[in-house]
Design brief:
CATH superfamily: P-loop containing nucleotide triphosphate hydrolases
Strand content: 5-15%
Radius of gyration: 19 Å
Number of domains: 1
Helix content: 40-55%
Number of strands: 5
Strand order of the largest sheet: 2-3-1-4-5
CATH architecture: 3-Layer(aba) Sandwich
Distance between the termini: 30 Å
Structural class: alpha/beta
CATH topology: Rossmann fold
CATH class: Alpha Beta
Largest sheet: 5 strands, parallel
Shape: globular
Length: 272
């Protein structure tokens, strides 16, 4: 099985943490749910799940929506193995004291951590219970792969300000190809999970990459959740430069190799 993100390939220590840590989080959410039921605390009116691959802008979208005072947006609630992932996710969505509640769910967490088959109905059932599914992807899998590899090698996944200049990375075609193929495999898995599931499709490039696009996307989602259109923004900043020459040491030779590969279609001016 191809792992789309080699950085997430589990060591024994990570595997134990995923198994035991997830059960502890699950137990804690169960404990919180009991007094809420006894007090008949109302659940949020609107609930949503941000679904997709890592490094596709999901953290940016969580930050953007979470900036609204009437939205609570949790992070990766299934990053650790749980006994009943769907029930755990539903409880997290119901815990918020705001009218709108959301969470982030990465596809590798369903496939590789919880080992749910491509035919799983988890999103179908959630959508049937009124949960809005926001499916976020990246169009350019080359830039997506480079973002993943750079973040892993530099040990920085998110930043809130322009950071120090970091050394460029050397990137071979086999490594880059493996990441893109892994992403394609996850895309096929996602398509099966989402088959027949009503969802709102978003892409990083069209809906989040530029400030004006973020504002437009936020306004549309706030309207969908019946919230007042207050200004929201995020402090997150891009980790990689738009100019890949500032990111990749062997840029010219790598681009030349890509031009004769099946991934040449991703060599748009902004990618190359």
């Amino acid at each position: 099985m191809i792992i789309a993100d080699p950085a997430r390939a589990p060591t024994l220590q990570v595997a134990l943490k995923r198994r035991l840590g997830g059960v502890l989080l699950e137990t804690a959410s169960l404990a919180r749910a009991v007094p809420r039921r006894l007090r008949a605390v109302p659940v949020p009116v609107h609930r949503f799940v941000i679904f997709g691959r890592g490094r596709s802008g999901s953290t940016l979208l969580v930050s953007l929506l979470g900036a609204h005072p009437q939205i609570t947006c949790a992070g990766e609630v299934l990053r650790l193995r749980t006994l009943a992932p769907e029930a755990h996710l539903r409880r997290i969505l119901a815990e918020a004291h705001t009218p709108v509640s959301g969470a982030k769910l990465l596809s590798y967490q369903l496939r590789d951590i919880h080992r749910l088959p491509a035919g799983t109905d988890i999103l179908r059932r959630l959508a049937g219970q009124g949960v809005t599914i926001l499916y976020l992807t990246r169009d350019n899998l080359l830039r997506h792969a480079i973002s993943n590899i750079y973040a892993y090698k530099q040990r920085i996944y998110h930043q809130t300000a322009t950071g120090p200049v970091r050394p460029r990375i050397t990137l071979g075609l086999p490594e880059l190809t493996a990441w893109i193929e892994g992403s394609e495999a996850l895309a096929a898995y996602e398509a099966q999970v989402l088959a027949g599931v009503p969802h709102r499709a978003l892409t990083y490039e069209a809906d989040l990459a530029q400030p004006e696009a973020r504002l437009r996307t936020a306004a549309a989602l706030l309207a969908a959740f019946a919230l007042d259109p207050v200004p929201v923004d995020t402090r997150l900043r891009k980790v990689t430069s738009d100019d890949l020459r500032e990111v990749i040491e062997n840029h010219d030779s790598l681009i030349a190799a890509l031009q004769t590969s099946r991934f040449a279609r991703y060599l748009t001016p902004d990618a190359a």
